[in-house]
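Human: I hope this is not a bother. Would you mind checking the protein record under this note? Thank you for your patience.
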Amino acid sequence: MIVYPVHLLLSGADCLVVGGGGVSTRRVKGLLEAGAKVTVVAPQLSPELRILMDSGTIAVLEHPYSTDTLPGMILVIAATNSGRVNADVVADCKERGILVCRADAPELGNFMTPAVVRRGDLCFSVSTGGNQPSLTARIVAALEQEYGPEYAEYVELLGKMRSVILNTVDEVETRKRAFRALASEERVLLELYRNNLQDEAFKHAMYIVNTALDYNEEMAG
């Protein structure tokens, strides 16, 4: 199965999860991480979903699924324990042009949710198209080992330095030189973050960028 990989920007988007069990709970958490506005429709809820409802984090319709819950939804996940209900959700969403994932048979919807390794803004998506979940799990474990929590801060730092470079220099080749200089210090910066030396990492990154920019001024002079 050939899929088109895409990362959706769901901040503030209305998303629906049909079902109130463990699978639904995991899907709800993933949508909340992406900043979505989540509604759950189910006659019964897992304890975790009830806590989220009581805190006002999610909206809940405590009744069986019906098409009345679909208007305004950008994305829907069918995650009930009933194949018939899940099939109805998929059919109704496709008829209305709504993105829908069927948790128990992803190939029957029009999108799949891959396994994810997230380090702040750094996000890896892994999927074997449902062919071999154990391979997916092994790859995820390898990524989690290779890319530790320090990468979240490192990627955030890169974003800050990118803004500094773009706001300071107009000349494309000078920008490239600064980006290359910063990339060459990846190991040093990551080690600083591993040792909780955030201020030192920022100062070192600024030094590298400023040195690269000063070099360009000297060459121009």
About this structure: The CA atoms of residues 14 and 37 lie 5 Å apart.
